[in-house]
Amino acid sequence: MTDDARRPGRDSAHAERDAGGRAAGDELAPVIPLFGSRTPAPATFAAKPFARTPAAVRPGEPAPEPDQAPGWSHPGAVFEGSAEPESPDEIRDRSEAVLLRKLRGRSLSLAEARTTLRAVEGVDDVVIEEVVTKFVDLGYLDDEAFAEQLAMSAVERRGQGRRAVVQTLRKRGIPRDVADAAIAELPDDDAERALEFARSKARSVGGKDYDASLRRLAGQLARRGYSSSVSLEAARQALAEAGVRRAPFSRPSASSGVRFTPDD
């Protein structure tokens, strides 16, 4: 029998083996090309959680991050676009509330009230003057009455002289003409009040050195706002009444002189 006659049987055996799914469990190894890299199979990825894109984003525009979405300051916050700007009346009401809280703690001059209102957000000069005028009409602000109150408190409670009173009024923003009027209403008894203060301090400053005691006491009076002449006279009299005198036959030292600035 020729080779051509035997070939159909051989081909039939091969076909039966292939149809049986690779006899004896043999598998064909993958063909690896000798040249070039093997093309990897497409990778499969886990599905990402569904993220909803804001409807306001137009096609072609990148979606904003959650923390940067328009109208939101942070996740869960109130939508900023819903807050309307304050009206002038609302700003004025808020300014009045701030000034009222300040006045409950202490009295203020008009200048101090304006300074307080300037610190309120959104307030302009027009609102400031409107609020100050309203409070003046209501009697909440009164520079003249406030100046008299400050002056009397400085004199009666702290025993200060006129110079100290003037400085106090100036620091509180009282106008010069209003301060002068308040000073003019004070009793003209600086000498008496200076002597009263000097008497209360004479024994505590008194020592063996009369000149040093005189300088110390007169300096205390000057710092309380008394003039140089009033301070020196009150200090001398108070030390004399306390029995503090210069020792007999002693001469004042070169540095014993009490120096003051000239009286205004």
List the helices and strands and how they pair.
Blueprint: H1 3-19, H2 88-105, H3 110-118, H4 125-138, H5 143-156, H6 162-171, H7 176-184, H8 190-205, H9 210-223, H10 228-241
Protein name: Regulatory protein RecX
Biased composition (Low complexity): 45-56, 245-256
Biased composition (Basic and acidic residues): 1-20
Overall description:
- Among the domains are: 88-138; 143-184; 189-264, no CATH class.
- It is 51% helix and 0% strand.
- It has ten helices and no strands.
- The model is unreliable at 13-17, 19-25, 43-59, 66-79 and 260-264 (pLDDT under 50).
- Keywords: Cytoplasm.
- This is Regulatory protein RecX.
- Residues 142-182 form the RecX second three-helical domain.
As an assembly, this protein is: single chain
Detail the poorly predicted runs.
Answer: 13-17, 19-25, 43-59, 66-79, 260-264
Strand portion: under 5%
Q: Average the pLDDT over all residues and give the rounded result.
A: 75
Rounded to the nearest angstrom, the radius of gyration is 49 Å
From the N-terminal CA to the C-terminal CA, the straight-line distance is: 152 Å
Secondary-structure element order, as H and E?
HHHHHHHHHH
The global form is elongated
User: What is the tally of helical segments?
Assistant: 10
Q: How many strands?
A: 0
Question: Helix/strand/pairing class, anyone?
Answer: mainly alpha
Q: What is the share of helical residues? A: 40-55%
Characterize the biggest β-sheet: none
Biased composition (Basic and acidic residues): 1-20
Main location: cytoplasm
Protein name: Regulatory protein RecX
Function: Modulates RecA activity.
